[in-house]
Amino acid sequence: MKIRSAEFILSASKAGQFPTPSLPEIAFAGRSNVGKSTLINSLLNRKKLVKTSATPGKTQLINFFRINDEFHFVDLPGYGFAKVPGSVRLKWKDLVEDYLRERETLRNVVLIIDCRHNPTVQDRQLMEWLQHYQRPALIVASKIDKLKRGQVQKHLKQIQKELSLETAPLGHSSLQSGKRDEIWKELTPWLIN
Question: CA–CA distance from 44 to each of 29, 41, 86, 166, 184 (Å)?
């Protein structure tokens, strides 16, 4: 995919703030600090379009980005160990569920799992939720560069087994552009109107 333009559109704290549904959307979901922002930046070949942080829970709103004036990437708040009050976490949960359940232009959800760890309870719950609402999902295992080369396939197979996937997830490292191409190959068909 050739990226000609990528721009931040808006952040939404409630469904009424979402942009008018007109372009296909790909949403990025995963636990806090799993690498959602890094993956989006990598796919768009940008360094800082989406803010990254070592602090879990940095993304607190749903962030929309317009790509090539043809589709949106949507960065969802992470779940899991973010150090925020329970009331804030519940608000995020409701916001994300509203988006995933109701958004008519949502074409695919990229669920990102840290390759170094087994899927969490929340990862499994999100997979079940997406299946229940018949939302297509692409599973991407992030941070494969943090493993020794011989360990990567073993960890991908473990994620496949834990999530009962037909195929192993795609691995991603922002240091390996070939991995980016594999992900684009899977996402591109979902962006055709």
Answer: 17, 5, 33, 28, 10
User: Alpha-carbon distance 105 to 169, whole Å?
Assistant: 24
| Amino acid type, 58 | K
Q: What is the mean pLDDT of residues 107-125?
A: 93
- Please state the domain extents for the chain: 6-191
Following DSSP, what letter does each residue of 100-136 receive, concatenated? HHH-TTEEEEEEEEETTSPPPHHHHHHHHHHHHTT--
In 2-147, DSSP assigns E strands to 6-12, 25-30, 62-67, 71-75, 106-114, 137-142
Global pTM value: 0.89
| CATH annotation of 6-191 | 3.40.50.300
